[in-house]
């Protein structure tokens, strides 16, 4: 029954009571008992708080004597204390438990008193025994029950602590819902996971439901109703709940309902696991996979573009080189110059294509530099237009006579206002040249003759509008027009890499600017670029 001797401490200031209890313990046939006594309040409290005994027997009528005998054992009797105030046993019981007594305390009294019995139990006594009704069997059973109950309570407390630690460590909270009364118990750590203290969040279904994300409320209620109706064995759903700081936290909720004999649910309990980090990781992985897919698609587009766009200029270079080698002695000077121009144009086209690839690569890697300097926008635009038109005139091709009307750029700007220098700005000259050159080159490529470049000013912003009367861009293509390597479905056999507009957008973004497109098929396109006059 007992694995080792049971250490008993009797707190009593009456010699006869001490001998009586000692004799009862000695008569117990099962187990061994090590018996000691103290007979003062102060000594008893000191001994009890050392927690060196398995059980404490405490006389309800203990007096306030200072005369005590430590460690009274068989063959020795405690000194009889002088008379004094009695009835402090219950006070000692309360103080000992409040200050950390870990063993059970059994209260002994001479007379049966229901009020004292109730008071003792409420104070935390393990049992309440009347000396006149006491024998060795009753005492042994009371001690055994008290010790076992204390062990069970300790085991339960440790189990609850482990459970609480596991819940806290795993970011898990529990809830218990009384379906009939609509009351719900929410564990403190679940409230803490949402940033609330124990008393800050009421244990009510309506209050708990209000924290659900509006988009998740319907699916959560649908899953709950399906489980309560008995269609699924376990309730399980992922949803968002509002944290006290205003952010949304993701939770995995699981629960099971208890049902009456008719199968109707009357109670439901479950757990909530914070899965916010898991959701964030899933989102990151989805983004990474999407980026990987995009990179693979860009690689595929790049290979297709290179194989297609390089083929024509390379063929031109090879054919012209072969013809020049074969006819070098018989051709006239103008014929030779024509083929030299072809070689130059093809090489320039390939060089520009490679430059575009390098620029978009730098931009994607965040290495495209932004170096603003002071510029006169009006003069800059005039010089750029002149340079592009001169370049057009210098490109000589065999089919030059097929289009007798030369392509032109009409530059429009607001008139000066009272001598102000509104055309002065601070921008990156190289990036601005990339923006306007690409847009104007595209406009010229898809227009028959004239292209319009307008410069205006709105709210400390420079506004550039590039308008053409070309083939236009479909609404579907407008959604993807700034993506690398994307080309419209109606460009036919016109050369191009699909990188120009992607470069334009990157350059505009480095200026903290804005670009928009308006277009209709067959009626031309207008690009609007807005850039701050100063960074």
TrEMBL record:
Location of the Response regulatory domain: 7-146
InterPro entries in UniProt: CheY-like_superfamily, HATPase_C_sf, HATPase_dom, His_kinase_dom, HisK_dim/P_dom, HisK_dim/P_sf, PAC, PAS
Enzyme Commission identifier(s): 2.7.13.3
Catalytic activity: ATP + protein L-histidine = ADP + protein N-phospho-L-histidine
Domain PAS: residue ranges: 159-231
Region (Disordered): 68-87, 392-422
Enzyme class, first EC level, given as a word: transferase
Residue stretches making up the Histidine kinase domain: 305-535
Residue positions where 4-aspartylphosphate is found in the record: 59
Residue ranges occupied by any PAC domain in the UniProt entry: 235-287
Molecular function per GO: phosphorelay sensor kinase activity
PANTHER family (UniProt xref): SENSOR HISTIDINE KINASE RCSC (PTHR43711:SF26), TWO-COMPONENT HISTIDINE KINASE (PTHR43711)
The protein, known as: histidine kinase
Origin species: Planktothricoides sp. SpSt-374
